[in-house]
Amino acid sequence: MTSQTSTDGVTERSFTLGEIPGVLFTPEGATGPRPLILMGHGGGQHRRAPGVLAGAYRFAAEGGFAVAAIDAPNHGERRKSERFLRFAGDMRARMAAGEDPAGLVGAMHDLLAEQAVADWQAVLTAVQELDHVGAGPVGYWGVSMGCGLGVPLLAVEPRIRAAVLGLLGVHGLAESAARVTVPVQFLLQWDDTRVPRDQALALFDALGSAEKTLHANLGDHGGVPEFETDTALRFFARHFG
Amino acid sequence: MTSQTSTDGVTERSFTLGEIPGVLFTPEGATGPRPLILMGHGGGQHRRAPGVLAGAYRFAAEGGFAVAAIDAPNHGERRKSERFLRFAGDMRARMAAGEDPAGLVGAMHDLLAEQAVADWQAVLTAVQELDHVGAGPVGYWGVSMGCGLGVPLLAVEPRIRAAVLGLLGVHGLAESAARVTVPVQFLLQWDDTRVPRDQALALFDALGSAEKTLHANLGDHGGVPEFETDTALRFFARHFG
Question: Which of B212, B216, B225 comes nearest A214 by C-beta?
Fold first, then answer.
């Protein structure tokens, strides 16, 4: 833990675990155990992306939860590997040439998933050792790349008991999605120009969870309505309350 | 208004308007204007069906809303016309013979829609004359047949400003759905054996509303999770609050 600031009733603590820069959000003055939400950002973003911050503040202030956000491998302040840079450049060129992006995006998530899963498992263990987080129930929130890295995490990590996912197609994820068994709230944008509707519906369908709810809203990839932060909060509160 | 009982903080008043038997739910001791939710029941059901009551009590007790529920034409305590009885018998026989039910269900709703729309318009006018209802915003809640009769109502009735619909396919409704412009929350059951998934997605798609959210849950036609009553309450509260 390297620094601490408090705003709007939420305390942010920056941390570094090995090579992983992260930030922990808790209600100001929090003591004792509480639910923990892990928040994964989108492709090209970082641990303090606007979509992450909007959720983190409400989850902490209104839900009383702890929230941990980290930079994904090769994102934010983390060193970018030669392999990643080559892959990203190649991906941009092939997308510009008109190639279907679904396979390319899936392959990119594949490249990052193994490290991302190990990162989250280490962060989860470390953060739960803090007195004001403790061994409460754990949730995961991540859409787009945050879903692409979250599904493999949920497939292998039994400590996570509920998840908000979405904004991604089934490409490359069918097998790990089938191993997800926790309750899921899945966001889909009806007019998503990056994720074909049928591929997103297929990923929702592929999830092995006995309880899962699809929330589809009008608009493109970046246009998830603000009220879905409220529904995510209520979803976690329902399962962890 | 012919009788009155109070339970769990909610007052129920039975009424008859012309040939229409209805029930009005309000918070106990309510005075002054408040939002009004019209609740339409499913096929073969009546104004006090369990799905209607569950919503009505929560909308009144927790939302502070007034809720009106009426028997649909040829349903509940209303006289069944010869034409309806012939049609219903014919429909059962054709379904038993394996005919695709979507067209039959659509035709049945068509038979009832004109009268149902006129009924709701008269009830809305009458109920809003009561001091403890008044001219607040109006919502509509109805799934399955309640959606089949609700879509034509929403298409022509500008006093209704938000609606929860669903559990129905697009058959026969495409044109009226396109004329619906208010915010809609649309329920879909992912494993509905009565309503093919693609037809339900097509009805959601056909709605003309600029704000609409699809909520799809696992399970068959009758298996809408209890928490969707909570999301409906929050949807109306968000628009009418």
Answer: B216
In this prediction, residue A1 has a pLDDT band, given cuts at 50, 70 and 90, of low
Nearest to A213 among B204, B211, B215 (CB): B215
Q: What is the mean pLDDT of residues B1-8?
A: 77
Task: Return phi, psi of residue A52, to 5°.
Answer: -70, -50
End-to-end CA distance of chain B: 28
**Domain residue limits at B195:** 3-240
Residue B147 has which token pair? 């959606």
Q: Which residue has the tokens 């069906």?
A: B49
Q: Which residues of chain B have a CB within 8 Å of the CB of A204?
A: 216
CB B166 within 8 A of CB B184: no
E-only strand ranges, chain B = 3-7, 10-17, 20-27, 36-40, 66-70, 138-142, 160-166, 184-189, 212-217
Residues 6+ apart with CB under 8 A from A239: A137, A139, A161, A162, A183
CATH code for position A176: 3.40.50.1820
pLDDT tens figures, A156-208: 999 999 999 999 999 999 999 999 999 999 999 999 999 999 999 999 999 99
**Chain A residues close to B211, C-beta within 8 Å:** 217-218, 225
**Between chains, do B212 and A218 touch, taking CB under 8 Å as contact?**
yes
Residue A227 with chain B: CB contacts under 8 Å: 238
Residues in chain A with CB shorter than 8 Å from the CB of B223 are none
- Total domains in the fold of chain A: 1
* Residue keyed to tokens 């009008």: A218
Taking contacts as CB-CB distances below 8 angstroms, the residues of chain B near A180 are none
Phi, psi of A93 (to 5 degrees): -65, -40
- The pTM (predicted TM-score) of the whole model is 0.94
B contact test, residue of A215, A229, A233 with most B CBs within 10 A? A215
Lookup: tokens for A40: 């994964």
- Taking the C-alpha atoms of residue B61 and residue B82, their distance in angstroms, rounded to an integer, is 40
Judged by CB atoms closer than 8 Å, whether chains meet at A216 and B211 is answered as no
Summarize pLDDT for B143-191 with one digit per residue, the tens.
999 999 999 999 999 999 999 999 999 999 999 999 999 999 999 999 9
SS3 B9: coil
Of the candidates B212, B214, B218, the beta carbon closest to that of A212 is on B218
Closest residue by Cα to residue A41 from A116, A100, A125:
A116
ipTM over cut 0.85: yes
Nearest chain A residue to B191, by CA: A205
Nearest-by-Cβ selection for A215 from B205, B213, B238? B213
Which of B181, B185, B189, B190 to probe the A interface (max A CBs under 10 A)?
B190
